[in-house]
Amino acid sequence: MNKVLLIEDDADIVQLLLIHLRDLGCEVEVEHNGKLGFQNAKINAYDLIVLDIMLPAMDGIEICGRLRASDIYTPILMLTAKSEEIDKVIGLESGADDYLTKPFSIREFIARVKVILRRAKISLEHIGQEGVFECNGLTIDRIKRKVMLNDQRLELTPKEFALLLLLASSPGRSYSREELLDLIWGYEFSGYEHTVNSHVNRLRDKIEPDVNKPVFILTTWGTGYRFNDELTINKKHHGN
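The structure assignment produced for this chain is given below.
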């Protein structure tokens, strides 16, 4: 059974979503206050957080950003009455996995929830059982969500880590920007390719010895990005 935290202060929306989340077989906890919702999300483990942006005490953008800064990577579906593109970008950049604008159809909400939960499961299966990747002084620890370069820890954002882990898990496989948007940000439509580009550039700034001559993350011209498959990658389980 999937465990869901619903942080929403509109009682009518809460009741509607409660019914349908429970119909999906989810166990649901509800918080109407942003600060209390944030504290709950930090303490307890959930499979999904459904998060309204406009909340009393602490707004959804701050909650999302602070959770990601606290190394809490629970999938987040943001709900908001705002529809401007800049608000969507802010939601994505703060670490949300998907974004739904009010008013939304309950069918669309259910579809998004199913996709997020399925993607989280597939992501773990895709990466496999290996917990640690080592390559040319770069170490990626999937379980601890930690990246080291020449024994120095790198401070990566949640999306930078997810991007690096996805690429490194399939060396040589080229991912289009649209695929990366879908797999990491949860968006299946074009228009946010610049978000992928900016994350790749920031990631390269942190891991590449020379950003003008990348060693790890290579550009596949006309397609997107890939991890260098000419490098020797060692994979091992935790405890090996």
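Interim note for the steering committee: DSSP finds eight helices and 13 strands in the chain. The first helix runs from residue 11 to 23.
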